[in-house]
# Entry
Amino acid sequence: MEMKGLDNAGFDPVDGRAPLVIGRTDFGEITREVVRPIFEGPPKVWWVILGVALSLLGVLGVSIAWLFWKGTGVWGLNNPVGWGWAIINFVFWVGIGHAGTLISAILFLFRQKWRTSINRAAEAMTLFAVACALIFPGIHVGRIWLAYWMAPVPNQMAMWPNFRSPLLWDVFAVSIYGTVSLLFWYVGLIPDVATMRDKAKSKFAKMAYGFLAMGWRGSNRHWQHYEKAYMILAALATPLVLSVHTIVSFDFAVAQMPGWHTTIFPPYFVAGAIFSGFAMVLTLMIPVRSLFKWEHIITVRHLENMAKIILLTGSLVGYAYAMEFFIAWYGANQYESFAFVNRAFGPYAWAYWTMISCNVITPQIFWFKKARTSPMILFIASIFVNIGMWFERFVITVTSLHRDFLPSSWDYYTPSLFDVTTFIGSFGLFFTLFMLFLRFLPAIAIAEVKTVMPEADPHYHPEGEHAEEAH
Amino acid sequence: MAADTTNSAHWGALAEFETAQDIYHACEKVRDAGFKNWDAFTPFPVHGLDGAMGMKDSKLPWIVLVIGLTGTATAITLQYWVHSVEYPLVISGKPFFAAPAYVPIIFELSVLFSAAAAVFGMLGLNGLPRLHHPLFRSKRFERVTDDRFFIAIEAVDPSFDLDKTVAFLKDIGATHVELVE
# Structure
C-alpha cells in the first residue's frame, strides 16, 4: 500500500472530515484484518520481544524474592527518604493506565468516534499497567505476610485500618479502578471473542473463545442491554479515573511535607497521568500498527489526535509546574519556598531539569503538523515523555523528603541495584502481558470499528443507487 | 392442527441479509406483520434498530441505580461501624464519624457496585452465559459476528406458519432463508 493513500490527516473538502478507516474496506475485511495476526501466528519479532519480556519478568521475580528474604534494607531507602522507588513506580504505572480509560470512557461519552481503533489495546494497556502498579504497594513493606493489612479487615491485633487515611482510600481507588477496567474491557471483548469463536478453525480455539464469548450471538435484544451497559460503564469509569489519580495525589497532598502539601495536586496529577498514558499508547501502537499492517485502521489521523492530547496535557503539566513555583513564592511560607528552590537548584537539579526537558519542552514540537503526523517523531517523543513522567514522580517524592523541616536529618538518596531491577522487571510483566494479549485477543475492537464505517448507518445509500431508493 | 406438528419440528426460520440498510427495513416489516417471538442478529449494534423492531427501553439503568445505592450504603455503614462502634480511636483529632474523610470510599464503592450491576445485570437480562443455542447449528449463522445480518422468527410465535413465514422473509429482502432445527 502506498503511503499517500493512507494519509487521512488532511481536511476533506466534501465531508469536512476524513474517513476513520481508509481504503475500500468492507465489514468482512475489518474482521479478516484484525483476526489475521492471531490465526497466522506471530511474526519473529514477537518472539524476540516476548523473550526479552520474560527475562525481565524473571528479574522482577528474583528482585521481589530477595526483598522478601532480606527486607526493605535491599533498597536504597534512608532516614529522611522512607518512600523511594516503590511509590514512584506505583504512581508511574497507575498514571499510564489513565489514558486507556480516557480513550475508552471519556472519549466515548464525547462521541469521539476515532477512539474505536485504539480503545481495545489502550484498555489492555490500562489493565497491565494497573497490574504492575499494584505490585508496589503489595511488596513495599517487604513483609508479604502483612499485605492483608491493606484490606478492610482487622489484623492479628484486632486493629482496623484507618478509613480517614488517604493510603486506605488509595487501596480502594486503585483496586476498584483495576476491577472496573477489567469489567469494561471484558464487556467490550464479548462480541469480538464471539467473532474469534466463529472464525477459529481448531476445536480447542473454538471452545476457548466460545467459553469467553458466553454464547454471544449478536442478538439485537442483547445489543440493546449491551449498549446500555457500555454507556453506564463509560459514565462510571469517567469520574472513577479522575478520582484515582486525585486520590493518589492525596497520598502526598494530605501530608504536611513542603512540596507535597498543595491543593493543585489532584488536577495536576490527573493531567500528568493522561499525558504519560497517551505517550505509552503511542509507544505501543506505533510499532504494533506497522508490524500487523494496520495503518489503514490505526491511521495517521489517530496518531495526530493523540499528539494533540499530549500537547494539551503536557502544557497543562508545564503550567502546573510553573504555578507550584508561583504559589511557593506568593504563599510566603519559608519551608515551601525552600522546597521549590531546592528542587530546581539543589542536589537533585539534574532530575528536575530532566523532567522539565522531557515533559514541558518535548511536547511543544507537536505544534507542528509535520511532527504530529510522523510516526517516527511521535515514537521518539513518546519515549521522552515516558522518561519525563517517571522523573516527575521521582522529583516529587525524593526532593521533598530528602530535605524536610529539620536540616540535621537531611540526606542524599541513591537507589540500590534492587530498586533498579525491580523497576525494570516491572516492564517485563507489562510487556509479557501485552505480548500475550496481542497473540490471543483481537487488539482492535472489531465490532466497534464497523459501527464508524459509513455503510453501518441504516440510512446509508451507496452512490448510484441513491436515486432509485430515495423516497 | 397439522401446522403445529410441523412447527414443533423446527426452532424457527432464519433469514439472511447483506446490509445494515436491508435488515433495518426488514425489521420494520416483521414488526408491522405482528410477530412477537423474533429477533434480529447483527455483527455490531445497528443504530435505530431497537425502534425498527418496536422494542421497549432497557431496564438496566434502574438495576444499576438500586445496586449502586446499595454500594453507597455499604460504604457508609462500613466506615461508621468500624470507627464509631467496633474500633473507636481518635486519629489526627478527627471525629469518629469523619464524614468528609469518608467521601472517597463512599464514591469508590458506589462505582464498584454500579459497575458490577451494569455488567452482571446486562448478562442476566440477556440470559447469558448460554453456551448453546439452536442458531449455532446453522453454518451460515457463523457470519453474524462478521459481515452478515439475520432475522430469526421462532416457531413458537403464534403467527408462525412454515410456508407463509418463509415466503414472507424472502419477500422482505432476505437473500437466503433456512429452517433451524
Summary: The CA atoms of residues 59 and 125 of chain B lie 9 Å apart. The longest helix of chain B spans residues 60-86. The radius of gyration of chain B is 25 Å. Chain B has two domains: 2-56+133-180, 60-125.
